[in-house]
Amino acid sequence: MTSLTTLGGLPFFGTLGDDAFFQLTQQGNATVRWEIFASGTNQTVYAVGSPEFRIADIDGIGGATNTRESVTPSVNGLTSYTVSTPTNLVVSVSSAGIRASGTQDQNGESTSLVGFIWSEVSSWEINYTLHINDPSIQARFLHDGDGDFKFVVPLTTPLLGLDLDANDSTAIGTARETTFAENGAPVTIVDSDVAIVQSSVLGENSWICKRHADQSANGRQAACRGLYQYEWQLHSWRRNIHVLGNFEWRPDRGCARRDGDRGAVPRGAPADHIREHVGHAVHRRPERACLGAQRGVPNRQQRRHLDHHRRLSQRPTGRADKSITTLEDTPVTLTVADFGFSDPNDTPANTLVDVKISSLPANGTLSFNGMPITSTQVATGFAVTAAEIAAGKLTFTPDPNENGANYATFTFQVRDSGGTANGGVDLDQSPNTITFDVTATNDPPTVTGLGNGPIGSGTDAEVQESDLATGSTPSDVGETATGTFTIQAGDGLTSLQVGATTITAAQLAAATAAAPVTVTGTNGTLSITSYDPVTGIVSYGYTLTTPADHTGGAVTDPFAITLTDSDGDTASSTLAILIADDAPTAVSDTGTVTEDATTTATGNVVTANDTVGADVTTTPVSGIVAGLGSPAGTGANVGSSVTGTYGTLTLNADGTYTYNLNNSSDAIQGLTQGETVNDIFTYQITDADGDTSTATLTVAVVGANDTPVVIDPNNPGTPENPNPAPDPQNIIPDIVTIDSATPPTVDVSDYIVDPDGNTLTFTSTGLPDGLTLDPATGIISGDLPSDASQGGPNGDGIYPVTITATDPTGATTTTTITYTVTNPAPVAADDTATVIEDTPLNGFVDTNDSDPDGDDLLVTQFTIDGVSGATQAGDTAVIPGIGEIVINDDGSFTFTPELNYTGPVPVITYTISDGEGGTDTADLILTMTPVNDPPVAVDDTISVAEDTPASGNVIGNDTDPDGDPLTVVDYTVDGLPGPIPAGTPVLIPDVGTLFVDPNGAFTFTPIENYTGPIPEVIYTVTDNKGETDQGVLTLTIAPANDPPVAVDDTATVTRIRQQPATC
Hints:
Immunoglobulin-like; seven-stranded antiparallel β-sheet; about 40% strand
């Protein structure tokens, strides 16, 4: 970018990858100039070829152009543009420039991409515009110079193109190049290939030139400087190019021959002069021809040879003005000869191609192929080919009944087959005139615009019989109708006869809507309300006054029309008014009866809502049938009783009826309250001329409620009429069962039904606890509790139950059933237990007892075999010499045996109760199991004389309850480690020696003169069955008188200070 002009917002540049982007921050536009420089220098470089610059992310709003963003490129050197197919861009091209505008927000998607292609340029400019004045909206434009922005499906539109490829095709040709030598043979270019495609945005100045072979071909426009220039005539979008013969040598463009000759070819020089000077201008070396455009077309795409030998076609001529005579009202078919074509200036002469219509006749009609030629067609050069004229497709038709000399003219120009190549002229430049003279003829009178006949041939207006005062729609106005017909009396009108009435020309002219000429018809009045002598239009009105008899079919009220002109000629027709028949309309009726209540319905089907119509009759009912269908014939069943589905109907001819319900039928008795069924009858009414209409009489039968009924399932009757049970309160069998049982299921709905088929709701009173009645199904089910036998009104387990059935209306019926529930007795099972000697036994006597209905069991008392009386539960009973026992009410017991008792225990019988009167007894059988008793060691006390050993037996006074032999196991001496195994002596320091034998014998030997205390001895005795006991052996020493013992003494005296010794 080398320059920038901004009118709004602050532009920024940045890059996205290798692609530059440009952003406008507020409404306005910016013009950016892009230039091509040689890398590392400031030297401008012209592109060799066609640089393409792509711009993306041009957004829009709502599918409309110029709503948000647009770009406008410079057109100097611009040759084409490309968009994707499809695209969300609109590219507008006009003489004002070219602009790409977004129509939808694309957010940078490739479908918003546009590419512009320039040819041989070094720079270009692009104007960027943001159209929206909204601070929150900015416009960003992305740029692509290396082609990595891809078109979806590229669509390239050329702005400048050339076709000179000499292949006589209509498509733009590809580049072609050839050489020729001075004075060499010319190369012909086919005329149809000489074309330039050039957009109006590029202007209209084009040229064709030759370039010397030795000139530098650097691809720029300057390559065509100094060359010969031709002037071209340009036409429309795809311009045909024709050499006009105006050729000049342009030395001011630096074009000089090598011999230095300069000169000019006079303007307007003939073709051979052009050829001569062109041949003179070329050099002796080969040269190339090129075609350029003022805004820079790539020369490499436009090199062509020129044909310098084209001949010019001369204009043809048409016949001098010509007159054609025809009769009044007679068309003329034009022929090729009528146009007098000639081509005197061409040799050989060309042929007629077509005739251009230059102007249209003021009178009459000039038509092509049966269609009038319009002024728009003439303005755009409408022409008729010679072949089409020869085929009779060009005609002239005078206006009806018009005539006169010089009645009409039109002008034309003839065109030959010579074409316009090289400035030729193929169209006669001076229009010629054809004049039509129309000769008058006798005009017979005519009557047009009428159907001219009875039904089938045509009618002219229609009136509705139904809109008469007695008709079915009297408020409407269809009994009147209006219309027109046209009369023409070219020789003068004398009279118009309508029906039997003759109307003079003066009367006809004076007729108005306020003062019409009236004619009475068969069923109504015809009024002539106006006449226009210019157009010949006669206006009329018709009013129907009486209905018509349509028995034979459609009916018209016809009026004969006769027109007489001044020379006595007549023309006739018929004005026929179609009278649309009014038909009766039967409208369906309803009636109502109610089961067990109002069983008769009456009314009148005709006067209630039917319409007989204009063809009045007092006895319109012509048939009646039960159900849906067609009544069988006129008068069928009218006045007679007709049996329907639920009753009978009598319908009379005047429409009155009576319906009687068959109330006793099962279908009626089976109706629920409010339920409705319909009894349908179809009747027919007929008017005076035989038109019919059918409708239905629907009698709604409304059901009433029936009370539910208790039945005997073995004799139920029908659902609609059930048989009541003879004893409805005792029809359901009673149930006998026990506590905690699941009694048989009872389905109450088997015994109570509803005649209407309604769903019943069941309720009950007095059911035992645990049983329920399903209100929807009527089933009694459940499980009884264990105390059900104690319930009931009297506490005796007898339950009188009342069942009530209720229908949806609240109607009820009842029945009863009795449940008798008894209590099953408990079952007590004997118990056995083993008692360990000297050990109390605890247990439960009821762990194996049961109750069929799950009642809680209690022990009430017990007896002991051999012991009189019964002991209440919880009290203790003594069994002399054996022990004592207590059994509590919860079944727990404790037996305590006498010490060391191991003999038999009497049978103990206990009684259980379920609390509901059921009892049972069982025995508790106890067996004693002896156990080993430990021995009993008795302490021993021994007195020991001083210096005298003592002996004895520690088990001599010990016993064993079981009589088992005893043995000393070990003993301990207080203060010494132990225990000491029996049979092992032990020295008691400073006391003496002790020995205890396993058989219990012991010996204690005190030390000499010892009289002090002897430590306590504890021994352990066993019965050899593992039981042990300990005893204490207490030894005491009785002192004896011992002689004294004198012990010698010695002493040492040491003299200190000469004092005496002491001791």
